[in-house]
C-alpha cells in the first residue's frame, strides 16, 4: 500500500505537495521559487510589470500596481488626469494641464502663485506721462492727460487752445506741439483776425 507522504506536510508553507507511488513532490506556489529546499518570495516588481506612470508594490506571493498621483487607471494602463476640469486655480488665474500635474498662473494685472492672486496697482510704477493722472482698476489701469493737456495719457502736450489764442469768431484746433485757428463760416481771415458778416 502506498504511503501518502503529503499527509505529514513535508513541504514549505508556500508550496503544494503532490503524492506519487512511493514518493512525493513539492512545488512552490505562484509567486515563489524553490532554492535549496526553501521557498523564497519572488519580487515581481523587478520585472517592471506596471505602467510607466504607476508604482509597483511587492507582496508575499503577489504584487500590486497603482497609478501615480495625477493619473487614473488600473495600474497596467494609466492615463493623465486633466486637473483643470475641476478649476483648482484662482478666479484670476489660468490653469494649464501638464503630464501628471497642472500649473496655475495669475493673469496679467495680478500677482501671486496662481492659487491666490491679488490685483497689481500698476500706478505705483508711474506708467503715465508726467502731465497725466493714473487710475488703477482691477487687473488694469488708465492714463488720462491732466486739464490743459491733450494726448493719450502716455504722451500729453499743452492744449494751446485753452488760452483762447484765436479770434472770437474763429475755431481753435490743438495740434501736436502747436495749434491752428480757422475763421467761422461766413468770415474771412487768418483765424487771428476774422472779418465779414455771417450770413443766415
From TrEMBL:
Molecular function, one GO term: calcium ion binding
Residue ranges constituting the EGF-like domain according to the UniProt record: 2-34, 41-79, 80-118, 119-157, 158-195
Listed Pfam families: EGF_3, EGF_CA
Keywords from the named record: Disulfide bond, EGF-like domain, Glycoprotein, Repeat, Signal
InterPro entries recorded: EGF, EGF-like_Ca-bd_dom, EGF-type_Asp/Asn_hydroxyl_site, EGF_Ca-bd_CS, Growth_fac_rcpt_cys_sf, NELL2-like_EGF, NOTCH1_EGF-like, PKC-binding_NELL
The keyword Repeat appears for this protein: yes
Gene3D superfamilies: Laminin
CDD domains noted in UniProt: EGF_CA
Domain of life: Eukaryota
The keyword Repeat belongs to this UniProt entry's keyword annotation: yes
PANTHER family documented for this protein: EGF-LIKE CALCIUM-BINDING DOMAIN-CONTAINING PROTEIN (PTHR24042:SF5), NEL HOMOLOG (PTHR24042)
Descriptive protein name: EGF-like domain-containing protein
Organism, as annotated: Branchiostoma floridae
